[in-house]
Predict the structure.
Amino acid sequence: MKINQNYNKLPHNYLFTEIALRTEKYIKTHPTQKVIKLGIGDVTQPLSPVIANAMKQAVEELTKKETFRGYGPELGHVWARQSVADYYKNEMNVVLDIDEITIGDGIGEDLANITDLFNHGGNTVVIQDPVYPLYQSTTLMDSNDIIYVPCNEANGFLPTPPDSHSDIIYLCSPNNPTGAAFNFSQLKAWVDYALENNAIILFDAAYERFTSNNDCPRSIFQIEGARNCAIEFGSLSKTAGFSCIRSGYTIVPNDLNRDGMNLLRMWQQRQTTKYNGANYITQRGLEAALTPQGLKDADRNIAYYHHNAGLITSMLKEKGLFFTGGESSPYVWLKCPNGMKSWDFFQYLLDTVQVIGTPGVGFGPSGEGYFRLSAFNSTEQTIEALERLDTIL
């Protein structure tokens, strides 16, 4: 029996686990101190009533013999998949076949599981640096090689494709953690690169509805040629407040073929073999979230988070600190003052003003010296945190 030794390549603690451990340790030794969290990207605004009512109705159906349901389809109910297709058509003018859409339990799970379609070992994977830690961890678990493309001030945190060949490309736009979003020409460069290299782009669109710039695509399928080289992942966690409920979707185009294999068929086989399907109640919530009223309520919450982000960026401007993000993203990415390293700045804020953020280095080597603040807390808590930060920055 062989153990996957690649797990030894991973950090001892996942980034947010380490933050939680340090925070818990501080709270135990300082029980009277109020800690304010502007770190992890978890929403605080409640579900839309239209979503809650749809899910309540789904539960009620299951209490009656005539409307009770058993196992659902592993790939998602037709009406749920149709809701996603309608959303893409109405919001982004992207036409999808419902067979190209699968419903899952959230974006992270599908981003990790999609690698079952590729060899574990022997692939070269491009990863933006800094970026969501899951991409790196999954690649290391699969024994693939990584090419990091640095996101920094020089390129506006929006890198261009590397000169060398690659097989798999993780892209996230708007980016987590930097908040930077590719415009159409910048994303087209990546699609062209993927087509030239016969590579596959895994496109994380978790924050697409936060995009405030019309020059920035919300779906990679708005780019010509993307149907021949890209898979897209969407989530309702940040847009509709599903972080507790967990719901998302994956889009694999019919056109996507490699080595005589159709990736959509492979993904469907993978899901029907290894996954039991999203539950009925959650899918009714997804359907409601993508109705006009559901989207209106989502936009109200997003505006709330954008307001918080504006408060953060205003304070940073007053202090003369470099930052990016906050406009097309709920995150603000700032340079640590006085040349401090990321974890040192984290500990400094915790010890002096009891404010939690996210060390940039946790998102990749190029994140060293940077820090992420989240706009997902309440406005009241955000204002209090900024008042504290104002005393030390």
